[in-house]
Amino acid sequence: MTTKTMTTKSLCALAVASVLSAPALAADLNGTSVNYGGYIKLDAMWSDFSDGSLGAQNLGRDFYIPSSTPVSATSSEDAVFDMHAKQSRFFFGTKTALDDGSSIDTKIELDFLVTPGGNERVSNSYVPRIRQYFYVTYKGWLFGQAWSNFQNVGALPETLDFVGPTEGTVFNRQAMIKYTTGNWSFSMENPESTVTVNKAMVVTDDASMPDFTARYTHTADWGNFVVTALARQLTYKAGAADETESSFGISASGMVKVGSKDNVKFMLTQGSGLGRYVGLNAAHGAVYDGSKLDAIDSTSGFVAYQHFWSDQLRSTFLYSFFDADNNVDLLAYSGDPTKKIHSYSANILYSPVKKLTFGVEYKVANRETESGLDGDLDRIQLSAKYVF
User: Fold this and answer.
1) Which residues contact 102 (CB under 8 A, 6 or more apart)?
2) 3, 113, 215, 270: least surrounded by Cβ within 10 Å?
């Protein structure tokens, strides 16, 4: 192959393969296509907390984390301003055609959220992290790290906040083996438990089996509807304690088209011991009372309406909630856990060209604990995003 006959795709593949071995270079130039992309995003946020503020390194300053909203018995309002580009991301993928007509695909995606290494004094040099994509797929099988099969990413509305309906959505990425056939998909995923022990969260990794999920997707002209189920084992093993508890959950979500462009997206999730799967771990999976585990029941959900004012201008109006059914007889062991969280948000997004978007979003959120303490968050967020 001469330089004159190389395609842009081949040149890209050659550049990537130059840091690899010769056999890898040959594969890249014979049947393997390479693709890459991502986006650059700048976020500027003014956050007003009704009951104290969050520390400078708290992740709740970078995006909305429901359980981080401060609560107290006395009001101590505080406002802070933050600006960062940590949500910017990059992905790289390959696709290798096989003789039988199928293909082997790989993908890796990186961003800079929730990672250490940087500071805002001089360099802001944050460490990149693996996001949901680090996997290989072959004939319906997926091996690697990806979105949990219990989650419906397609139901997430368009928001400036990193997640949006954070307290109301299933949100999880982890290592898994997943098989998809037709409208069905099934997975075995990495297990992990968050347990309240002596009023503090303990993260355990002692499960004797993976988390299991099943999912059914129905797609029609009007939109789509997805039902997912989760079954897993909660564990706590420390000292003389060797306890397990079963956890089950079900989630229904989807998107309904309204008119030519508008849409409604929604999700409703209910279960026992869902813990880390919902609301960025808004509630722990279970409470350990000194002799056994008691799973925490929860109900969560959201509804969002997106309206297109024009081809370049659109808005999303969102309501999201989370309710935990804490066992009040165990408050001596669980302390004062979160009872309810809800938020409202609205935005307006402007895209002068297809891949460039400017936007402003307003969010108001409230968190209440089992004792009745509560706190509010008011946030105005400005963003600029370019997709490449």
Assistant:
1) 138, 139
2) 3
The C-alpha atoms of residue 273 and residue 232 are separated, in whole angstroms, by: 9
Helix (H) or strand (E) holding 334: helix 331-334
Give the angle subtended at the CA of 109 by the CAs of 105 and 114, to the nearest 5°.
Answer: 150
Closest CA to 269 of 282, 259, 258: 282
**What mean pLDDT, rounded, does the chain reach?**
91
Average pLDDT over residues 146-161: 98
What distance in Å separates the CA atoms of residue 329 and residue 222, rounded to the nearest whole number? 47
DSSP string, 364-379: EEEEEETTS-EEEEEE
Host H or E run for residue 26: helix 22-28
pLDDT tier, 133 (very low <50, low <70, confident <90, very high otherwise): confident
pLDDT of residue 119: 77
pLDDT of residue 30: 67
Distance, CA of 190 to CA of 187 (rounded, Å): 10
**C-alpha to C-alpha distance for 105 and 28, rounded to whole angstroms:** 13
The string of DSSP codes covering 124-149 is --PPPEEEEEEEEEETTEEEEEEE-T
3-state secondary structure at position 325: strand
Percent of the chain with pLDDT over 90: 82
